[in-house]
Design a protein that fits this description.
By secondary structure, the protein is mainly beta. Helices cover 5% and strands 33% of the residues. It folds into 2 domains: 414 residues, Cupredoxins -  blue copper proteins (Immunoglobulin-like), CATH 2.60.40.420; 139 residues, Cupredoxins -  blue copper proteins (Immunoglobulin-like, Sandwich), CATH 2.60.40.420. The structure holds CU-O-CU linkage (C2O) and copper (II) ion (2 copies).
Length: 561
């Protein structure tokens, strides 16, 4: 591997950054010397960044019109796996808006990650990345998912507060040739004060959906099964209407991934590599190192690390980021930062202000990583010479645009309420460690039929998440609820991590203390390392919130159709 020097030494140059005929594989720290480099050349920054299409509902049902609402196809028996039990038993305030019906087919497709190279993929609606869903508080949806692939799938909406039945539990499969109806109420939790009001401090913004099939997640995701789900509510709509946050064409979800290709154009994936998949082609919204034309104004970029195992430390070759969100949630106030650390599954929602930018700005990754173990130092020096591997290029055009969005560091966004230590009733400890070449939590492998934690619905808990070491990184994701990272190795974490997260990055030997409240839904749900190879090799546990602490475990089998 040439490391950094080959790809993007000093400032990335426009057009072909490595002389004639760029071999992307040569430019990056790959997965050790043992894996073949992708045998293709292309000229980076010559292809426009794709924008995944927004998914349109196939029907919009007025819940007050009985002819519409009585004749829905979404009934038990009409679909192999039915919809969540909550669909038939909703509190009245779950459906302030219309019910939107969507249909999506999981099927094979062909996609050009590199121009001219036909790569077979597995995609939601056959495309990669999948279509972007846009949803709104209290406007529920039913998503009928077909499976035209010849592999089991399970669709998880990452960052959502959703019933267990539609959460993409690893073995609540959509089997080949069959379909499942997922019911997303699109609510947020209620306030803990008993008022019954929505706790809009918990309303999400940037979620994503991806495959979660048991033992198959890593391969299905690498083959293309991931997309965005953007949520909004009255508070966030007001921020856009008041011109505080950019909206419309200036609000772009951007997924960063890495892929490796074989000479026939297929995606290289080794099902026996349990350390973590690393590609040698940097892929942004499905295209290798694209460009994006921007005006001289502010943009909102919702970055997602959609890679299986690669971490990114992002910088711009000019200017800083104004971070407005972490994972699913807006921050209480905007924060200025020059770097963004992303682990697999993490989102960071940022504003970039191109008003005074030069004509070309690059988004670069300055982390070195040559194995699934995790990143190994940075490639950049503080002077921003030798800035790292360029992910994409922004071409800045035209005059300064007036009347631009007003957000700046310090701008108030979404309020946050900390869980008080006095509210916590239970402390649990989880050690994430390696054993015999596989991955365990507290000495156990994932068992989809065993509940490893049974919190009481409505209670708050303290979870101590510990990395067992060995130099491995484990980005730990907990479904259903936001968690508040109160201590990272005994210290208060960085400002952007002090509020709500759904992925806690555990570097080697790190310990995170997180507080969270269990609300609304009983289980089962999972939490796991989001290095997808670690997850598939069983670094995953079940938590099963119960309404009453003495209640017998909900037999997990009862969730089967
Ligand atoms: Cu993003 Cu359980 O996953
Ligand atoms: Cu999740
Ligand atoms: Cu891990």
């Amino acid at each position: 591997m040439l490391g950094l020097a080959g790809a993007a030494s000093a400032r990335p140059q426009g057009g072909n950054c490595r002389g004639s005929g760029t071999t992307p594989g040569g430019g990056f720290d790959g997965n050790g010397a043992s894996l073949p480099s992708s045998p293709f050349t292309y000229v980076p920054f010559t292809r426009e960044m794709p924008k995944p299409p927004v998914k349109a509902p196939c029907a919009i049902i007025d819940p007050t019109n009985p002819t519409q609402s009585n004749n829905l196809p979404w009934q038990p028996g009409n679909c192999h796996h039915g919809v969540a039990p909550e669909y038939f038993n909703q509190p009245s305030d779950w459906q302030a808006g219309p019910l939107k019906l969507y249909e999506m087919d999981q099927k094979d497709g062909v996609h050009e990650i590199i121009p001219g190279v036909q790569t077979p993929i597995r995609g939601y609606d056959g495309i990669y990345p999948g279509p972007t869903f846009r949803s709104r508080m209290c406007e529920p949806m039913v998503l009928r998912v077909k499976n035209s692939l010849n592999t089991q799938t399970s669709v998880h909406l990452h960052g959502a507060h959703n019933p267990a039945h539609c959460d993409g539990y690893p073995n609540f499969y959509v089997s080949p040739g069959q379909q499942r109806d997922y019911y997303y109420p699109n609510i947020c939790p209620r306030k803990p004060d008993g008022s019954g009001q929505w706790d809009t401090t918990e309303s999400p913004s940037t979620m994503w959906y991806h495959d979660h099939g048991m033992d198959l997640t890593a391969e299905n995701v690498v083959m293309g099964m991931a997309g965005f789900h953007i949520f909004t509510d009255a508070l966030e709509e007001q921020l856009v209407a008041d011109n505080v946050l950019p909206g419309g064409d200036q609000d772009l979800p951007i997924v960063l991934q890495d892929r490796r290709l074989r000479s026939d154009g297929t995606i290289f994936f080794d099902a026996l590599d349990h350390n973590g998949y690393l590609g040698d082609i940097m892929v942004v919204n499905g295209a290798a190192q694209p460009f994006l034309r921007v005006q001289r104004r502010k943009y909102r970029f919702r970055f997602l690390d959609g890679a299986n195992a690669r971490f990114f430390l992002l910088r711009l070759t000019w200017g800083n980021f104004t971070q407005i969100g972490n994972d699913s949630w807006l921050l209480p106030q905007a924060i200025e930062t020059n770097e963004l650390l992303l682990s697999p599954a993490k989102r960071t929602d940022v504003i970039v202000d191109f008003t005074n930018a030069p004509n070309e700005v690059y988004l670069v990754n300055i982390l070195k990583q040559d194995s699934g173990r995790g990143p190994g130092g940075t490639t950049a020096n503080p002077q921003r010479l030798n800035p790292g591997v360029p992910m994409m290029k922004f071409i800045v055009e035209g005059p300064v645009v007036g009347n631009d969005a007003t957000v700046v560091p310090g701008t108030p966004l979404r309020p946050h309420h900390s869980i008080a230590p006095s509210e916590i009733t239970t402390t649990r400890e989880f050690l994430f460690h390696r054993s015999n070449g596989a991955w365990m939590i507290n000495g156990k492998f994932f068992d989809e039929f065993r509940a490893d934690a049974t919190p009481t619905v409505g209670s708050a808990e303290r979870w101590i998440l510990k990395n067992g070491g060995g130099g491995w990184w484990h980005p730990v994701h907990i479904h259903l609820e936001s968690h508040q990272i109160v201590k990272l190795n005994g210290q208060t974490p960085a400002p952007s991590l002090r509020y709500k997260s759904d992925v806690a990055i555990l570097g080697p030997n790190d310990t995170a203390e997180v507080h969270m409240r269990f609300r609304t839904f009983t289980g089962p749900f999972v939490f796991h390392c989001h290095n997808l190879e670690h997850e598939d090799m069983r670094m995953m546990f079940v938590f099963d919130p119960r309404t009453n602490p003495t209640q017998a475990p909900q037999p997990i089998q009862s969730y089967y159709p």
